[in-house]
Amino acid sequence: MTKHGIPLTKAKVGIPCRLVRLRGGRSMQHRLAELGLTPGVSLRVLQDCGGPLLIAIRSSRIALGKGMASKITVTQEHTSNG
């Protein structure tokens, strides 16, 4: 896990991540916060098939376009199952 993080678009499907930082304008940050995407929250990429990313956050599923997802910085958490 890197200290500075990676864009959400580079996160591997199914690996738990922690949101580190949101880049972008104030309105985009506000919109993402309304969806529950705030620094420190845990999430997972469920699907990345070339179009929007499908992510799991808390008990919700959210589709994010690649442009918006590229402005979300995450760290991938280590898993104990080899």
Blueprint of the fold:
Blueprint: E1 6-7, E2 17-22, H1 26-34, E3 42-47, E4 53-57, E5 60-64, H2 66-69, E6 72-76
Salient structural properties:
alpha+beta; single chain; 2 helices; six-stranded antiparallel beta sheet; SH3 type barrels; 82 residues
Taken together, the total number of domains comes to: 1
Task: Report the uncertain regions.
Answer: none
Looking at the chains present, what oligomeric state does this protein adopt?
single chain
- Any idea what the shape is? globular
What does this structure look like?
The chain has helices spanning 26-34, 66-69; strands at residues 6-7, 17-22, 42-47, 53-57, 60-64, 72-76. By secondary structure, the protein is α+β, with helices and mostly antiparallel strands. The chain has a six-stranded antiparallel sheet. The longest helix is centred in the middle third of the chain and has 9 residues, at 26-34. The mean pLDDT is 91.
Write a short abstract of this structure:
This protein has 82 residues and is of the alpha+beta class. The chain has helices spanning 26-34, 66-69, and strands at 6-7, 17-22, 42-47, 53-57, 60-64, 72-76. It is built from 2 helices and 6 strands.
